[in-house]
Write a structure and sequence with these properties.
The complex is a heterodimer. Chain A is built from eleven helices and no strands. Chain A is mainly alpha-helical. The chains are: A mainly alpha, B mainly alpha.
Chain lengths: ~300, ~140
């Protein structure tokens, strides 16, 4: 397929929006540009036929990262910290030279790459044994299961790290801080309207990942957004971090994955799923992972417990 | 135009890596460095994903797609932890930059026109107690 004018315009736009996000002076505007950048990247992934990546980029890269940045900025601004200075012009020149040479080296190198067949054929050939018709899900949960197993543990580790930043007197409490909204305001209305839609789309994405673009990560993120919206609009309190069912939801996915992978040892090897049972196993695994991902992402957004009534 | 479709995206990915690196080096504000870190990451993903389209097959290679999705999830885990650390650093009195950066140059006020976002922070969360606390 040949590049159209649209592709070139989109690439220029992506670069300009990224530049605005990094070089603009106001942090709030920079974050808004960054979210726009994530959505434009999702469009670029669609043009490259990578629909699964487009969904992940829109939901995680633009959505959850954006809300994390906005919350962090609001907390930093409230503390009114000193402004950090801009570095010396000489430092900026050296940085610009380094950046341009790295980009130029990469950009020149892509013209001289040897042709590659990629791994489509290898994946296609074994897809019937993988337990799913979506090749990306097959790679994620089966062929490269190690990646995904460790990735779920990384998410959990990040949450544990974020929780360790809580102060002793705040632990254990409800995650994050209290949220207040006007009961009849736009945000509260939004909070009542959006979650049912997001829940439906999230569950659909997890289910459809078995044969079409979608999956535990994309669907789990949409489920997380439903929960985040209800908490941020004050309709539900944030969960307590020592709540037993919360911790079960956090751990069920990774534990199920480790158990399933270990059970493969008895059949053949670590992370082996017998082709006859693979479909049911992967579907169950996707569901457990989606719950764990949704819970972990939502709690990462809520943040460590912070006391509500400070003087 | 007879450019293969992956070429503009691969070039865009290369340019984003450099742009992110520049942002990482010149922004003293830690939050802006997190933005730059994410731009580098997504530039690498775009370069990787674009080059995976070189074979000209009718559908995209699933292996790079899966690896990029994994990368996106790991990036958000790192971003969330880093933002938590930055807020904790500021809460502990460290401000929004690192100590060594103070020696560099004149202080710039870049939040002067930032009033339009106040509605958001007030709606989203109650920030006032922490502001008072940091002045104790």
């Amino acid at each position: 397929m040949m590049a159209s004018h649209f592709d070139i315009a989109l690439c220029l736009l992506i670069f300009s929006v990224a530049a605005a996000a990094l070089l603009g002076r106001q942090t709030f505007m920079a974050i808004v540009f960054f979210i726009t950048y994530g959505l434009l990247l999702a469009l670029a992934w669609l043009r490259l036929d990578a629909v699964d990546v487009a969904l992940a980029e829109a939901a995680i890269g633009a959505g959850v990262t954006g809300i994390l940045l906005l919350i962090a900025r609001a907390r930093l601004k409230a503390m009114d910290p000193r402004d950090a200075p801009l570095p010396h012009p000489a430092v900026r020149t050296i940085a610009a030279l380094a950046a341009v040479s790295i980009s130029a080296a990469l950009g020149l190198r892509i013209w001289s790459l040897p042709p590659s067949e990629g791994l489509q054929k290898a994946v296609r050939a074994r897809l019937s044994e993988a337990g799913t018709d979506n090749p990306v899900t097959a790679v994620l949960l089966n062929f490269r299961g190690w990646d995904t197993l460790l990735e779920t543990l990384v998410l959990l580790a990040a949450l544990l790290g974020a929780w360790t930043l809580s102060r002793d007197k705040d632990w254990p409490g409800r995650a994050g801080r209290a949220h207040h909204t006007l009961p009849d305001g736009v945000l509260a209305e939004f909070g009542r309207f959006l979650p049912p839609v997001a829940l439906t789309i999230g569950v659909y994405l997890v289910w459809v990942g078995g044969h079409q673009p979608g999956g535990a990560f994309q669907g789990g993120t949409v489920l997380a957004s439903a929960w985040i919206v209800t908490v941020m609009t004050g309709l539900l309190p944030a969960p307590r971090v020592d709540d037993a069912s919360l911790r079960t939801a956090l751990l069920a996915g990774p534990i199920a994955f480790v158990l399933l992978a270990t059970a493969g040892l008895f059949a053949d090897r670590f992370l082996y799923y017998p082709p006859e049972q693979a479909k049911a196993l992967l579907l169950g695994l996707e569901a457990a992972l989606a719950v764990a991902i949704a819970t972990t992402l939502a709690l990462l957004v809520f943040g460590a417990p912070q006391s509500r009534e400070e003087t | 135009m007879n450019l293969e479709i992956w070429i503009p995206y691969a070039l865009c990915g290369s340019a984003l890596i450099g742009l992110g690196l520049y942002g990482l080096l010149v922004n003293a504000r830690l939050l802006r460095r997190i933005l730059a870190f994410n731009v580098i990451g997504s530039g690498i993903f775009l370069l990787f994903g674009a080059m995976a389209r070189r074979s000209g097959a009718p559908y995209a290679d699933p292996v790079p797609q899966a690896m990029i999705i994994t990368g996106i999830v790991v990036a958000i885990a790192a971003t969330a932890l880093a933002l938590g650390l930055i807020v904790a650093h500021a809460r502990a009195g460290g401000g929004e930059g690192l100590p060594g950066d103070d020696a560099m140059a004149e202080v710039q006020d870049d939040e002067g026109l930032d009033g339009m976002s106040d509605g958001v922070s007030d709606d989203v969360s109650d920030e006032r107690p922490e502001a008072q606390e940091s002045q104790r």
